[in-house]
Amino acid sequence: MLRRTSLLAKHYRKSIPGYSTQSRSFFGIGDVLGAIGNPKETLSQITEAKNELEKVKNELVEMGEKVRLPPVRTFVRQPNYFSRKLEEDRVRAMLDSDATFTVFFGAASTGKTCLIRHVLTDNTKYIVLPIDLRISAFTDPATFYMSLSTHLEAFFNDVSESVDGFEELGHRLGLGFKHARIDVERRGVPPSSTDISRLMELFQNALLNYWNYDPSLTEEERKKLDNQSTLPEPKQRVTCGSPNKLNRKIPVLYIDEAHRLPQLLDTEHSGTLKIILDGLTVLTKQERLLHTIFCTSDSMFMSTLVDYNVLTHTQVLHVTDPSKDSIRSYLKDHLLLQINQSHLHPHIIENFDNIYSILGGKYIHWKDYLLGDWLHDGLSLTQSKVATHAKISVESHLYPSSGLSTPPNTLALLHEIAKATDDNPLDIFDARRRFGQEVVDALLCNKILEVRWGNVISRSNFLENAHMNPKLDGRSDISENKPAINPLKPASSVMGWAIKEVLKKHELQ
Questions:
Q1: Residue 189 three-state SS
Q2: Which pairs from 271-277 meet CB under 8 Å and 24+ separation?
Q3: So which domain of life are we looking at (predicted)?
């Protein structure tokens, strides 16, 4: 009945004159009339929409360009690296032991960075989080948080790519740092020291996950482990007695030019630096989750370690120049090959001792002088750039710019430095007592002097020093009551030469 009624109604509508089966709609007519009535606003809206579309288009293009840019790994072995076997073996022995917080001291251009980088770039053993503070991207806690968070995300992405079986876990841990950073950005308040503390906790959690993870577990076993309220004790840690059954790479945090940390985070943010150093101490010495390596050319960084109560938890090693034999090999096997005028080679070899007495054992000084100052500019050794710069540094310290005066006792201290020998060194604390802390620290800050803190690893192997105690293979007697010395030395061989030259000039006046 209803169907019949519907058909009758439809037939009736079609019988009406002018009826069309196509329905008409006036939807949007108001917008059309508004656009016609106010063309200025319409054009403005069209322009704005066009700009927005152009902006989106540019962002998509930039995103595509970023995707096409291949990631470049900057932490690689230096080209033309000249081997230093003794020092390399010492660094490897340190990395193969229990987790350590190690601080490497050494004057500028001694090759610390190249040496440590050469060892750490062994991709089969270590996975490294490198931070070079010479090109740091932070000046306060807020920017430090963003920079460190980005570094940690990249580190665990590297775990995902380079550690077999850890692809999924590494990616997941990297996302944790990314989303933590996004949450802080959305909060609209600059990151504080509290956020950095939470970031260190997240880093600890991620490392615990790394050491606990077992790729051989089934998905069900892994879910059961993930559902636990707290993480169990890690099955493995960075210890010499713990077998690395899953071939995990040992995590290493490496900070180059570490003395810039207190400079970048000034006294106003000293609490932030305390959080960082304490956090690294816990992760390294207490939890044994990674090795931490600081590298610095500033002897005054020792004061930072003492002030923040970190020194007692660290191992301090000192890298000096390569030995004389190493320099001789470097000259014959490397530098002379780059001097095409073979008739000049005998003259260089004959004057090796004379050159070494001034330039000492810095590879870069030998290269700059022989291949630059002498070969191309024809300069004598005392006219070379490195010798001239060293004399300028000493003279400028003794005769500072207008308005400043030379600290008293400076000349007396330099005379003492010139007389000191390896057998009769001048200890820094004795020097401070005799000549004043201000005098000593000023010469250290200007990189005229350095302190040989800790164990020097750049000298001949102690096994060669069998005359010390032949029964102990050259080691000292444990019961020997011999005081430790932290000798004050010229920052380089050429600086020592410059000090003596300047003192001669003063004696003639």
A1: coil
A2: 271/193, 272/141, 272/144, 272/193, 272/196, 273/308, 274/308, 275/193, 275/196, 275/197, 275/200, 276/196, 276/200, 277/308, 277/310
A3: Eukaryota
- List the structure tokens of 434: 């005799």
Measured distance CA(505)–CA(500) in Å, rounded: 9
Residue 463: what pLDDT? 39
Q: Give whole-number Cα distances, 363 to 89, 109, 210, in Å.
A: 20, 8, 40
Stretches where the chain sits below pLDDT 70 are 1-37, 62-73, 221-222, 225-246, 266-269, 402-404, 458-483, 508-509
CA 82 vs CA 108, 141, 307, 503: distances in Å = 17, 39, 37, 35
Which residues, 6+ apart, have CB-to-CB distance to 442 below 8 Å? 397, 407, 410
Q: For residue 311, count other CB atoms closer than 10 A to its CB.
A: 16
| pLDDT of the residue at 213 | 85
| pLDDT for 3 | 47
Say which amino acid occupies 324: K
Tokens of 508: 């003639």
